[in-house]
Amino acid sequence: MACSVTDEYQRRGIDALFLENDHLRVELLPGKGGDLTRIVDKRTDTNVLFEAPHEWRAPADGPVGAPDGAFAFLDHYPGGWQSVLPGAGGPSEAHGAPLGLHGESTLVPFETELLADSAERVSVRLTASLTRYPFDVERDVTLSAGESAIEVSERVTNTGEVPVDYSWLQHVALGEPLVAPEATLTVPCETVHVDPDQTADTARLPPGETFEWPVCETDGGPVDLREFPPADDRVHDLVALADLNEGRYTVSNPELDLGVTVEFPASLYEYLWYWQPFGGFEDAPFFGRNYNVGLEPCTSIPNAGLAEAVENGTAEELAPGGTQSSTVRLRTHGTD
């Protein structure tokens, strides 16, 4: 079939779009942060993105329970792929702006403009201005005929009159059935930094330690981060992969003959956050119900938030009127 785009659709009251070609069917929520919530590989009829198991709600419905900056992101988290600005991790504060977990951009509605709608190519532009930070965000999502790939190109502009610190995270979460014990991860990197605030009883790796990729030699035995343990092992680890030789990673599942490769600019995203909730995220909102990986290109570390990134020198700075750009591409393919 030719490329197509459909906008006569809502999900949980949120404006949604479908982009489609012969290879992929993509669901996009402009009304909620521009989230990519489904990327279905048609050859295997598999959604490669993680779908959250809890009863998430639209941000416009307001807070769930007591207002809590730490939980706003999770209350409204459908899974999938979010672009996180102006602060990754958190909660935190910067330039007098309180920032909840994973900042602000995932909770705001985006305006939509159709850039291309032809048999060869469909492309939509999403735009929004943040409230707590002087950021204008512009995002182009493009699907081309003959390609099993979705491309997300973004620009963030500082509309303020002073320079501001920020961190930028591509919160890409891949899920079952792609993620499974028979699947493997390939990343061209050198170093593993275990998050210093990792405290879960189900963690295998000691907080704040550094290892060489891919096998972490711990007191409890070797941990091979290329492998995904079964859910019965009840594992939950968080690390940042560093010293990237290329901005790329691949998850391959030979049982499905399905792989996913994500490419990103390593000059901008110097770290790849690797979230590993293999049945071991036992606190709210998951309570042991999720089996997935987050493989998340990020400008900065650690997960504690933007203030910590400023302190350790990994935060980015954007000058008045300055613009930073990013292009991330996700492709599905066979494993042969």
From TrEMBL:
Source organism, top-level taxon: Archaea
Pfam families hit by this protein: DUF4432 (PF14486)
Disordered: annotated segments: 316-336
GO-annotated biological processes: carbohydrate metabolic process
One of the record's GO molecular function terms: catalytic activity
Database matches in SUPFAM superfamilies: Galactose mutarotase-like
InterPro entries noted in UniProt: DUF4432, Gal_mutarotase_sf_dom, GH-type_carb-bd
Name of the protein in question: Aldose 1-epimerase
